[in-house]
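ok so i was messing around last nite and threw this chain in just to see what happens. nothing serious, just curious
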Amino acid sequence: MKGLAYNNLRAGKQYWLLNYGERYEFEILEVMYPQDFKLKDLNTLEHFHMSDITRYGTGEDFEIRELR
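result:
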């Protein structure tokens, strides 16, 4: 896994995530136990969970980085 680890992600911060060739830009609204997050997409303003993105696993290109 490149980039940041899950335990470095913080509520209120903005990140981008790459998984299986798809890029997501989001803000973390809430950290949920054990390793899930409630997110807000910065482009569509839709709310979803990190587990929705990683439901089918993480690809070789999986990476999380902070925006700005």
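not much to say yet. Strands lie at 2-3, 14-19, 22-32, 36-41, 47-49, 63-66.
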